[in-house]
Amino acid sequence: MSRRSQRGGFTWFPASLGQLALITPSMFRSIFLLACLSLSTLGTASFAAQSEPARKKLVMLIAEDEYETSTTLPAFAAEYLARDFQVVTVQGVVAAGKQTFASLAEVERADVLLISVRRRPLPEAQLDVIRRYV
To answer: What is the pTM of this model?
Structure first.
C-alpha cells in the first residue's frame, strides 16, 4: 500500500520504488480536472456515436427540363430531408439526343430512390440498374 504525506501545502506521492514526486495542490487540481474532462469527452463521443443511427441514403435521379426539378428538388431535400437522409443528386443530360446519366453507381447503394425523369429513354444498361433497384 502506498503512503501519502502532506507537509506545508505539498503532497508527496511515491512515484516508483523509493522515489517521491512533489505535486502542489494546484497541480493536483489541474491534473484531476484534466483527467475528468478527458474521461467525460471520451464517454460523450462514444455515447453520441452509439445513440445516433446511421442516416439512410436517398438518391435523386433528375433528368427533365420542363418542371425545373433540377433546381427545386435539391432545395426541397436540403430543407426537409437532409437531417434524416444522406441526400445524393444524380443529374442526367437533358440535351436533345443525349438521354443518359453519367453514372448510376449511387443507385446500387441507395436506401431510397427518387426518380424525376420525363420522356427520357435510357440506354438498356442504365435501365437495368433502375429495374434491379425497383
So the answer is: 0.59
| Cβ atoms of 117 and 92 closer than 8 Å | yes
Residues 100 and 125: their CA atoms lie apart, in Å, by 10
Helix (H, G, I), strand (E, B) or coil at 76: helix
**Which residues are registered as beta bridge partners of 52?**
none
Strand ranges (DSSP E) for the chain?
A: 5-7, 10-16, 19-23, 56-63, 85-91, 112-117
The two beta strands, 56-63 and 112-117, are parallel
- In 3D space, the residue among 109, 110, 105, 95 whose CA is nearest the CA of residue 125 turns out to be 105
Grid coordinates given for 3? 503512503
* Bridge partners, 22 (sequence order): 12
Residue 111, all three cell numbers: 436506401
5-7 and 112-117 strand pairing = unpaired
3-state secondary structure of 10: strand
- Cβ count within 10 A of residue 36: 10
pLDDT in tens, 24-80: 666 556 666 556 555 555 554 444 455 567 889 999 999 888 888 999 999 999 999
